[in-house]
Design a protein that fits this description.
Blueprint (H helix, E strand, L loop, with lengths): L6 H6 L41 H13 L4 E5 L2 H9 L6 E6 L4 H12 L3 E6 L2 H7 L6 E5 L11 H10 L3 E5 L4 H4 L2 H4 L3 E4 L14 E5 L2 H14 L5 H11 L2 H20 L4 E5 L6 E6 L5 H6 L5 E2 L9 E3 L11 H6 L6 E5 L5 H12 L2
Parallel strand pairs: 2-3, 2-4, 4-5, 5-6, 10-11
Antiparallel strand pairs: 1-7, 6-7, 8-9, 9-12, 11-12
Helix pairs in contact: 2-10, 11-14
Length: 364
């Protein structure tokens, strides 16, 4: 039996010893779109790169291992991962989803509902979600913690209820990453990531991943993947694999910084409320005077005013006009995503420099 290595070891070893031909320590970038057959009726296991690519396969092997699952599929973006994951569910499927969602996911759900593809029931809390799941539910979709209100859901508890009712469970694990959470052992049927974020970690790769331990689901996912082609390129597969090597130490570093910044913000006279779970690098906070937000964002010097998250650089986002702009204001307000909320993706800079930057910006 193969030894089950610890997470840090799996990450550091990503892609090595994958090239028997040369012994290359680093996984080669295989740019070829097609592969020669040894002879008629035989294959190397690689025929056409849309279906399978050696560089991408090395990446997917690591992605599956770190989520404690059997299968991983690397996609071209986080949103393509969402769409691929839902491709396994039939037309007219009934979805129960957390209300606080990334704006792009909400936009796609809304479009699918308008076309009759899915019917979506939204839940503000874990209790509401559990109450909404019944025998007609086909899939339960959870971001935990949610984006951007940082609400946590008990995956094991939700999964048990969903499975008892015959529903599948999809979990977006982007915010916590496998360093802090493994949804598959907790009962999730499919896990997705926007791998653009923490898995890559350097704001230079657009990628997603769909992970499952279920062979039947995997085969259906692969059919749609091969048919529709949301594939991750060989170069991006290599870059993501390189980023994975430092995932654990990056997550530990941003958590340490975020824990200090959460206390700093919570004690600041200009801040009304801080939303932070105690782990990971994502903090949302509400300022007392939303009218000062433009000046605050314009005066940032170390922290960048930019969309996205999960990189080594600290980023601040204004969800109302950026990541969640597609959610109608009245809907956002109904569950607490107000116009005085800012989202901070904490990086690995010196925490004292980050505090100083926040102090001068909040004083504007």
């Amino acid at each position: 039996m193969t030894k089950a290595y610890q997470l840090a070891t799996i990450l550091a070893q990503a892609g090595i010893k994958s090239d028997d031909a040369t012994g290359s320590l680093v996984a080669p970038i295989h740019l070829s779109t097609t592969y020669q057959h040894p002879e008629f009726g035989k294959s190397t296991g690689f025929d056409y790169t849309r279906t399978k690519n050696p560089t991408r396969s090395a990446l997917e092997e690591t992605l599956a291992k770190i989520e404690q699952a059997a299968y991983a599929i690397a996609t071209s973006s986080g949103m393509s991962a969402v769409v691929l994951a839902f491709s396994v569910f039939a037309y007219g499927s009934k979805v129960v989803a957390a209300r606080d969602l990334y704006g792009g996911s909400f936009r796609w759900f809304n479009n699918q509902e308008s076309e009759g593809r899915f019917s979506v029931t939204y839940a503000n809390t874990e209790e509401e979600m559990i109450a909404a799941i019944d025998e007609s539910t086909d899939v339960v979709y959870v971001e935990t913690p949610t984006n951007p209100l940082m609400v946590e859901f008990d995956i094991a508890k939700v999964a048990k209820v969903a499975h008892d009712k015959g529903a599948k469970v999809l979990v977006d694990n982007t915010f916590y990453s496998p360093v802090y959470q493994n949804p598959i052992p907790l009962g999730a049927d499919i896990v997705i990531h926007s791998a653009t974020k923490y898995l890559s970690g350097h704001n230079d790769v657009l990628a997603g991943v769909v992970i499952t331990d279920n062979t039947e689901l995997f085969e259906t996912l692969m059919y749609h993947y091969n048919t529709t082609g949301p594939n991750l390129s060989p170069l991006d597969s290599y870059l993501l694999m390189r980023g994975l090597k430092t995932l654990k130490i990056r997550m530990e570093a941003v958590t340490k910084n975020a824990q200090e910044l959460a206390v700093f913000l919570d004690n600041h006279v200009a801040v009304k409320e801080v939303l932070y779970t105690g782990k990971g690098g994502m903090i949302s906070f509400k300022v007392k005077d939303k009218g000062k937000i433009p000046a605050l964002l314009n005066s940032l010097k170390v922290i960048s005013f930019a969309e996205s998250l999960g990189g080594v650089e600290s980023l601040m986002t204004y969800p109302a006009t950026q990541t969640h702009a597609d959610i109608p204001a009245e809907v956002r307000f109904s569950y607490g995503l107000s116009d005085n909320l800012l989202r901070l993706s904490v990086g690995i800079e010196d925490v004292e420099d980050l505090k100083a930057d926040l102090e001068q910006a909040l004083s504007k």
